[in-house]
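Pasting as-is:
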Amino acid sequence: MEENDLFRMPPPLHPQAFYTERAAKIMAVRKRGAVPMALVRTYGCQQNVSDSEKIMGMLSQMGFSFTEDPEQADFILFNTCAVRGHAENRVFGNVGALKELKRRYPSILVAVCGCMMEEKSASEHIRRKFPFVGLVFGTHVLHRFPELLCTALEGDGRVFERGDEQEDAVITEGLPARRGSRFRAWLTVMYGCNNFCSYCIVPYVRGRERSRGPHAILGEFRGLVENGYKDITLLGQNVNSYGKTLGDPISFSELLRRLDAVDGDYRLRFMTSHPKDATRELIDTMAGGRHISHHLHLPVQSGSNRILKAMNRGYTRESYLALVEYAKKKIPDLSLTSDIIVGFPGETYEEFRQTVDLIRQVEFTSLFTFIYSPREGTRAAKLPDPVPAEEKTRWLQELCAEQEKISAKRCAGEVGRTRRVLIEGKNSKTGLLHGRTDGSVVIDFPGSEDQVGRFADVRITAARNWVLSGELVPSK
């Protein structure tokens, strides 16, 4: 074995620390400016945002600073989403746009990671169509990012790495994070999903459910509170399944209670909550909490029992409405939001109207609505889908018009009330501050920028659909 090979071998106990240091040395020479610069673009859900924060934390340890200008970047990374087809097409288009930049600056390393790259067809498309992409890796090997980056920087070939069953089970604690806010934070409590909804690719690209240990979660949570984070959101594909894979299982409700017991001035949220696993115990925990937000995101997807069965959702319209009724009784000021898929394969207009009827009954604060998008590899993608896209678009418009009426009514009922708001930023065009209530409703109001990141009481003076206007209430 050559001496140079010995130098390249990582110490057995801390291999990623070795690669982090080595990448820093490589980039100190390879950089085009005063310091190596990285551009990280994120597509998709909050879990992807959290993953990007970890990647940026690792890049920071390697000496990188960050830019939004591709012309300045030495390393460009796209963290991708596989939930809908148009998101994939957007990624391919944005990656393709870098071809000329790579020609002008050959030292730039272009990388693509995330859920799309756990799909063999998508990663092979990158391999064939975008030869200037030097690093591709999936969600299951994120903890090995420093190693993969070093291999791409040092080697002559391209690096492609996807997960396998062994790596699916890996949960690596202690990864650094460069958070996108100084007062809002994402905290992942579990990974993967076991539900296999017939339209959803997530279990195939994120793997099976794996829960982090409660002590690790509590330690990270305490650190966030101690560092002044005011709005902390627990993340999981289905947080209600938390704890089932642990050697000493605990429920998600119990985890919430342990976190809520931590002293501090903060707001605790969670998503996403699957209706089939959402329990009355969870509602009771929310109702009795000191810091737990009275906002519940509970994706219903459809109001038709036949469609819910075809989606493999595991609950009925009736059980969903019964849970909502209980939640509203226990938490009178509860803010409910949801996801709706319009035009699932085989859905009729009459079944779609059952969804419209359901949203009238529930009166959601707001909805995230989507036209069904087929995903290769899912059962729903093989189903007959006779309704034309133009008709589905009309259905979506009808649904959104109904929800706008509901949102306008709910917001109008807020006028004259005072709500505690976390001030999140200032609009450079209007000069107004904006923040969110405990129920995740946006309010605009006058104020100074030095108040951003703080809680304040705001009296609501006007409503326009799902956005409110108000004025700060002077503190006593």
